[in-house]
Amino acid sequence: MHLTQTMQATSSVLKLYAENIGKTELSQDIPEELQRYVRQMRFAPLGSDGQQQLAHSRILICGCGALGSVLANTLARAGVASLRIVDRDFLEWNNLQRQVLYTEQDVKSGIPKAIAAKAHLEKINSEIEVEAVVANVSAENIGELVDSVDCIVDGTDNFETRFLLNDAAVKHNIPWIYGGCIGSEGQTMTILPGETPCLPCLMQGGPPPPGTTPTCDSAGILSPVINVIASIQALEAIKIISGNRDKISRDLQIFDLWENQIRQVKLSQLLENGDCKTCHQKQFDWLTGKRGSQSAILCGRNAVQLSFSGETHIDLESMQDKLSVLGTVDSNPFLLRASIEQFEITVFADGRAIIKGTEDETVARSVYAKYIGN
User: Fold this and answer.
1) Over pLDDT 70: what percentage of the chain?
2) Helices then strands (H, E): number in the chain?
3) How does pLDDT run along the chain (374 residues), one tens digit per residue?
4) Which residues pair with 335 in a beta bridge?
5) 139 domain-assigned
6) According to the 3-state scheme, what is the secondary structure of 252-278?
């Protein structure tokens, strides 16, 4: 028995020695700033050349909730040089079930998701640049958001924003990766403008009308499917920015983790035989503002977001003084939250607001006009 234990211990030591020799040999020619990515660079198709390209790339993460937080975490650890994160929302307790980047303290602090994400990502990888943008993605700001980025990844929760992203991506020839999840099912699609079908090619009738598709509130959402879809999105982005565009998936990939089903839908004929207004005719109705609204029902939140055209600025300190006589008010440098009657009103400095307690846009606008102003 003693001899067997000795042999096992010797074998373990030799194995560890061999692994360390391999690490030393591999690390000798790697620049110091890339040493943390040694395991990733050992994957031959990526290698040091691919890692170097990651280290000079910029990605826009549109939405930093469930999908977006996994995307941001994965891409930051992979060594993407610069992440521009845009999100319109703040954190709530039910986010923690699936939004892996955040903590209970983040929820208690009441700060926007983009700000919390930036703080965590800078602790994960202090060598990269993280830009946090607290805003609703719109036709007015999308041009600035996509400026100088090499790839866009979709962490949004609505099709209006996705169609806007698609317009911007096709117009500026920027690759982007669509992703979406509900219940136990998720799907993803990589779009290379001019090479693969775009989102309107797939959804020729446009976004589904409100109320016609399940929501997180009606169908629920399981965290594992989010991790699967976001991980695929992240790897597709890594393929693109590392110079391996030929390795991307050119199919619509659909996963149902509860039913153990995986499907791949061929899309090549959509581009070859279709007459997409975006791809073929270069009509960008979402980008020009011809299509799209300025309000959105938030998934599973019993809330409506209201946003407004043009430049708006609200003095949050003065607004707090105004509303404090009507209800309970809390604020931080980024937003103000007031509980008045049956509504919770969250106001951002740019005038945007989230009215919780209704899914009726008319009611939400009336609450805004009554308490915030026209």
Assistant:
1) 87
2) 14, 14
3) 454 554 455 455 445 434 544 444 445 677 787 899 999 999 999 999 999 999 999 999 999 999 999 999 999 999 999 999 999 888 989 899 999 999 999 999 989 999 999 999 999 999 999 999 998 898 999 999 999 999 999 999 888 899 999 999 999 999 999 999 999 999 999 999 999 999 999 998 788 755 456 667 667 899 999 999 999 999 999 999 999 999 999 999 999 999 999 999 999 888 887 788 998 889 999 999 888 766 676 766 889 888 876 566 788 888 888 888 888 999 898 899 999 989 999 998 888 899 999 988 778 877 887 788 75
4) 348
5) yes
6) EEEEECCCCEEEEEECHHHHHHCCCCC
Beta strands in 183-260 (DSSP E): 185-191, 251-256
Residue 246: CA atoms inside 13 Å, Cβ hemisphere, count?
A: 2
Residues 166 and 310 in one domain: no
353 and 269 in one domain?
no
Q: Are residues 309 and 162 in the same domain?
A: no
Query: Could you tell me which residues are beta bridge partners of residue 191?
Result: 176
Residues 74 and 208 placed together within one structural domain of the fold: yes
Residues in CB range of 245: below 8 A, 6 or more apart: 175, 192, 239
Closest CA to 255 of 233, 225, 234, 223: 225
Q: Same domain, yes or no, for 268 and 303?
A: no
Question: Can you give the CATH number for the domain in which 335 is found?
Answer: 3.30.310
Count: domains in the chain: 2
Evaluate the CA torsion angle 353, 355, 359, 363 in order and state its sign: negative
Q: 21 — phi, psi (to 5°)?
A: -60, -45
Tell me, yes or no, whether 243 and 325 share the same domain.
no
Q: Evaluate whether residue 287 is within a structural domain.
A: no
Q: Classify residue 33 by its DSSP letter.
A: G
Domain of residue 185, residue span? 47-273
Ramachandran bin of 183, using left for φ above 0, alpha for ψ from -120 to 50, beta for the remaining angles: left
Which residue among 240, 273, 306 closes a domain? 273
Nearest to 58 by CA among 160, 172, 145, 155: 145
CATH of the domain at 190: 3.40.50.720
Neighbours of 263 (CB within 10 A): 11
